Amino acid sequence: MKEIRDGVRSNKISSSESISSQPLVLDIEDFKAAEAQEALEDESLAKVEVEVREELAQTLEGLNMKEIRDGVRSNKISSSESISSQPLVLDIEDFKGDFSFDALFGNLVNELLPAFQEEDADSLEGNGNISGNDALSNGRSTQTQSSPLFPEVDSLLSMFKNSCSQLVELQKQIDGRLYNLKKDVAAQDSKHRKTLGEIDGRLYNLKKDVAAQDSKHRKTLGEINDVELS
């Protein structure tokens, strides 16, 4: 065993001496493979960097668009809330002249419709990306609606309810004014009738006086004629 171990050790020493005695030989081909691998890794890293930048840009753009849309929607909501919070003020003077209920309520509704039209256009743009796989067997496409068909209906309902209550109040005011006017007309009519009655009485007395004077004159003329004949 000792001889075997000594033989193995001597072989290791001789092999190591032979390896150390051989010079290190390098070739250009050895560096080409390494350079190619390094270039491939650099290209892969560059592609990954480009993809990451594109994803970040898309994410930032999506966030900006979302912030803009949220800002626009918040402005629309605040405008609709301000419109709905502002009560409709009607006065009797508004109904004088060329008044039209259609024009009044049309102008009020048109203040809310532009916001609805813009939101409807945004929803149509979002629904335009629906794929053909969403089509049903009967030819109708599925269309999910995350928002109500007419988002300003609550504002319009509150506005119309407010206007109806104010119209009822205006009707009461008009009925009160008409009652007072009727009382004034009745008082003036009674006063005029009394005045006309007094005038009729005076005319009757004047007619009586004229008739008496005429009879008296006729009698005087008759006496004068009798005197002249005699």
General description of the model:
The protein has 230 residues and is mostly helical. It is 78% helix and 0% strand. The model is unreliable at 129-145 (pLDDT under 50).
Structural class: mainly alpha
User: What's the rounded overall pLDDT mean?
Assistant: 68
Total DSSP helices: 5
Percentage beta strand = under 5%
In percent, how helical is the residue content? over 70%
| Poorly predicted segments | 129-145
* First-to-last CA distance: 214 Å
- Shape from CA axes? rod-shaped
Count all strands and give the number. 0
Calculate Rg over CA atoms: 55 Å
Helix-strand topology string: HHHHH
Largest sheet: number of strands, sense, barrel closure: none
Pfam families: Sec10_N
Biased composition (Polar residues): 126-147
Protein name: Putative exocyst complex component Sec10-like protein
InterPro entries: Sec10-like, Sec10_N
Task: Please tag this protein with its features.
230 residues
In short:
The chain is an all-alpha fold and 230 residues long. Helices cover 78% and strands 0% of the residues.
